[in-house]
């Protein structure tokens, strides 16, 4: 069984990569202290120690660790450059009927939505799939969907600001690098290649995109392609969100997330090269076989950003590396002269 998103290759080519701070919150909360990524466990532990207990309990009730569905309004479709504050405002302003619909989908005893029940093969099977309503959520729901939306927004904001915000520049830089690499893949090999690189099980069958799921369904409103959302705290198969008329989203884990908690030693340069340009500059030149930002180099290796910036400028003036601006990032890479100096 699978979800099928119908589209042509021309429509798929309209797809965009976007970053979503709210997705990081939801993905972190989903696995809590058992998350396999150390940075996500750290984020959760920070939040648990700093957040108002009630807001954390509400967030955990909305994003269960023992069920695969959480309300989609917690992570609304982002635009390029979306901030957590903008997403929090979106969450708080979720229309009451949308809040009710999302709660109905996953919570036992609420209204059975026929369009959702049919995906599961009938109301009885669907009701077994739904989960009981946690007490803290039942009390909140009794106060109305608008209150649910505002409280959820407060909880998402508190979680982000209390735990993720301190590391967000590094995480955002990693996400931007993943978007750049996959954008280059689109240029080199096409949108289908970029799509199938997001994770196992995701496939293109000529008429659209298929994702394995325990139910059947068709999405026919992806008229502007898809939103590809890299999430450093994502774990498991590509997650799918579709709410008509919004562009469907596919959340996936980007490459290189280990860099958020690990640091590497730069490679040892050739002694002659180190003697010629200096040890640090030789190491930098060696690792610039692909475009990298000052922040990435600082985060990945044992250098401060001012140190990296200083030596990159010297290498740039010498014609050994070139700088290119891509959006908010300035990326550095070996020039042909730099590559020849390294014997490549």
UniProtKB/TrEMBL annotation:
Domain HTH arsR-type: from-to ranges: 261-344
Keywords carried by this UniProt record: DNA-binding, Transcription, Transcription regulation
Entry-linked Pfam families: DUF5937, HTH_20
Keyword RNA-binding recorded: no
Keyword Zinc-finger among record annotations: no
Full protein name: DUF5937 family protein
Biological source species: Promicromonospora aerolata
């Amino acid at each position: 069984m699978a979800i099928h998103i119908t589209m042509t290759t021309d429509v798929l080519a309209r797809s965009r990569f976007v970053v979503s701070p709210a997705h990081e919150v939801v993905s972190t909360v989903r696995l809590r202290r058992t998350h396999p990524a150390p940075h996500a466990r750290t984020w959760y532990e920070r939040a648990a120690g700093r957040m108002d207990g009630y807001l954390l309990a509400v967030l955990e009730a909305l994003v269960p660790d023992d069920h695969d569905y959480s309300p989609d309004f917690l992570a609304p479709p982002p635009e390029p450059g979306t901030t957590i504050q903008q997403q929090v405002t979106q969450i708080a302003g979720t229309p009451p009927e949308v809040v009710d619909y999302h709660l109905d989908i996953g919570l036992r005893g609420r209204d059975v939505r026929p369009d959702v029940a049919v995906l599961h093969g009938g109301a009885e099977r669907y009701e077994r799939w739904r989960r009981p309503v946690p007490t803290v959520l039942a009390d909140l729901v009794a106060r109305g969907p608008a209150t649910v939306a505002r409280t959820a927004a407060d909880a998402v904001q508190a979680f982000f600001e209390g735990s993720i915000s301190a590391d967000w520049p590094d995480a955002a830089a990693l996400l931007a690098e993943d978007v750049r690499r996959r954008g280059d893949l689109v240029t080199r090999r096409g949108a289908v290649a970029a799509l199938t690189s997001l994770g196992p099980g995701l496939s293109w069958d000529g008429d659209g995109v298929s994702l394995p799921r325990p139910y059947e369904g068709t999405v026919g409103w992806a008229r502007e392609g898809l939103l590809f959302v890299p999430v450093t705290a994502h774990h498991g198969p590509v997650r799918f969100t579709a709410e008509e008329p919004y562009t469907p989203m596919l959340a996936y884990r980007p490459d290189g997330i280990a860099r958020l908690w690990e640091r590497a030693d730069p490679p040892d340069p050739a002694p002659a090269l180190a003697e010629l340009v200096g040890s640090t500059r030789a190491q930098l030149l060696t690792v610039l076989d692909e475009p990298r930002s000052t922040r990435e180099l600082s985060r990945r290796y044992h250098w401060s950003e001012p140190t990296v910036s200083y030596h990159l400028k010297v290498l740039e003036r010498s014609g050994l590396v070139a700088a290119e601006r891509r959006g908010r990032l300035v990326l550095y890479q070996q020039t042909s002269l730099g590559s020849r100096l390294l014997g490549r």
